[in-house]
Amino acid sequence: MKAKANLTAPMLISIVIPTFNEASSIKATLQPLQSLREQGRVEVILSDGGSTDATFDQAQFLVDEVVCEVKGRAAQMNAGADRAKGECLLFLHADTQLPDNFVDLIAEAMPFPSESDCWGFFPVRLSGQLWSLRIVERFMNLRSRLSAIATGDQALFVSRALWQKLCGFADIPLMEDVEFSSRARKVSRPRVMRGKLVTSSRRWEQRGVVPTVLLMWKLRWLYFRGVNPQALSEMYR
């Protein structure tokens, strides 16, 4: 008699992390994932864009695979996703920590395989203590809920079926997360998780909260007006 398939086997989540000179933060991001790796619930793929610091040395024993790709977040994430084995793909920035129960939250939101066109993201909390950052994160979370548009800081996750249907991220130097969300929301509404992740506030602290917010609004507005993402990338730098 043929054995029945194990319908209760946990869903494997493939976490793809694009990096470029992230030695200062990558270990703190990877350490909390190790017990889940040992349990076979996640695999971690580092997709590096040619780091010249100690990123590889810090990460090599804490990931399942390292992929070398030309620098560019979209290209790096696509390359990592091509090597992934999981039914769910999660794209994580190197300076971001997921909530402790993120695997259970995703499994609850994305029952596999009955909802193959599922995708979603996490609300964000910025790491800094400035009161103005609390306002920024609240508006970020409200905007993403209302618009169904996720940014890379929010650990976008997607079923393999939908990822393949949408052919991954567009090969553009900026706004690849916004562009992907715009296509994904036409297929299904995103699942917005209950738990918040924590992402680095260094960008706001280095450039100033108000100037950074204004720059982000300007870039997004120009993108939706049809400005070339390459030109936007130059402005972002």
What name is given to the CATH topology?
Spore Coat Polysaccharide Biosynthesis Protein SpsA, Chain A
Distance between the terminal alpha carbons, to the nearest Å? 63 Å
Specify the overall morphology.
Answer: globular
CATH architecture: Alpha-Beta Complex
**Rg (CA only):** 18 Å
Describe this structure in words.
This protein has 237 residues and is an alpha/beta fold. It has one domain: Spore Coat Polysaccharide Biosynthesis Protein SpsA, Chain A (Alpha-Beta Complex). The protein is built from 11 helices and 10 strands. It has a 7-stranded mixed beta sheet with strand order 3-2-1-4-8-6-9, with helices on both faces. A 3-stranded mixed beta sheet has the order 5-10-7. The chain starts with 12 loop residues before the first strand and ends with a helix. The N terminus is likely disordered.
Short structural description:
With about 240 residues, the chain is an alpha/beta fold. Helix content is about 40%, strand content about 15%. It has helices spanning about 25-30, 35-40, 55-60, 75-85, 100-110, 130-145, 160-165, 175-185, 200-205, 210-225, 230-235; strands at about 15-20, 40-50, 65-70, 90, 95, 120, 125, 155-160, 190, 195-200.
